[in-house]
Amino acid sequence: MSTLGRLKTLYHLTLSPIRGETHEQRLESFYKNQAVDYDDFRERLLHGRDELFAAIPVTEGQNWIDLGAGTGRNAERFGERLQKFSSVQLVDLSPSLLEVTRQRIDQQGWPNVTAVHADATTFDPPDGSVDLVTFCYSLTMIPNWFAAVENAWRMLKPGGILGVVDFYVSHKYPDPDQIQHTWFQRTFWPTWFAMDNVFLSPDHLSILRSRFNVISTEERTGKVPWIPLLAAPHYIFVGQKPK
Ligand SMILES: C[S@@+](CC[C@H](N)C(=O)[O-])C[C@H]1O[C@@H](n2cnc3c(N)ncnc32)[C@H](O)[C@@H]1O
Asked: Which tops the pLDDT comparison, 196 or 157?
């Protein structure tokens, strides 16, 4: 990515005002001028996605839905295993990002992958229930994230897998087996990310852990481009809808 491309993305992340009356309009206002450079910049910001996809088992003939799929880059993280899925639906509300997804699907020649323009809170898979649902850094951008989790639950088969990676902050007094963030972390990161309509919450992980059978939870921190010394907290969750 060129320095100019990086500066342009940084401008849209930090200074450019986000406009629009609906959620979809605000997303498009935020993403339309950074869709082409999206992947390169986010590779250094959105940590843990490779680890999430490496942790998800795939068997022949399964269906996968990625909610808030962005440019569809995550489909590449499955590598050769992507071809095992009978169908993959990459769902997003931003037309600009979906355009990049469609180009990727054409270039890669993936016969089993479709880009879908839909809202993660209401999307109803046409072929019925699915084996795998993922959210990668999308729950924090969905205002009614609770409805999105409920929709994922609804569309998963019993025994289906949910994979989530996202920014978060801990409760002031988290469960004993969870990490406790400092006052600074719990105050600074939600304020900083909220400027981009990214809303960090201690409740996402709590609800995932109580609604699904936990297969694994990892709580980590990762570097943020242009912010030296600080690292933003994220979690990687893999759970199963009870059979
Ligand atoms: C930070 S991006 C992450 C994109 C991608 N998952 C990745 O890992 O690069 C968040 C994505 O969520 C999408 N999004 C936000 N709200 C949505 C909604 N209600 N329905 C579908 N997608 C949504 C945005 O358009 C954006 O593509």
From this structure: 157
Residue 18 Cα to chain centre, angstroms? 20
Compute CA 5 distance to the chain's CA centroid, rounded to the nearest angstrom. 23
Residue-level length of the chain: 243
Ligand 1 within 6 A of CB of 139: no
The class level of CATH for 3-240 reads alpha beta
Atom of ligand 1 nearest to the CA of 119: 20
Which of 215, 213, 214, 219 shows the shortest CA–CA distance to 169? 219
Give pLDDT, residue 18: 75
Ligand 1 centroid – CA 141 distance (Å): 7
What mean pLDDT is predicted for residues 26-36? 85
**Pairing mode, strands 213-224 and 156-167:** unpaired
Q: Ligand 1 test: best mutation among 12, 27, 122, 236, most atoms within 8 Å of CB?
A: 27
d(CA 195, CA 227): 15
Give 230-234's long-range contacts (Cβ < 8 A, gap of 24+).
Answer: 230/188, 232/167, 232/189, 232/193, 233/167, 233/168, 233/169, 233/170, 233/179, 233/181, 233/185, 233/189, 234/47, 234/48, 234/165, 234/166, 234/167, 234/168
Domain locations in the chain as residue ranges: 3-240
- What are the pLDDT digits (tens) for 72-111? 999 999 999 999 999 999 999 999 999 999 999 999 999 9
Atom of ligand 1 nearest to the CA of 141: 15
Q: What pLDDT is recorded for position 37? A: 79
Q: Mean of the per-residue pLDDT values for the chain?
A: 93
Ligand 1 mean position, distance from CA 213 (Å)? 25
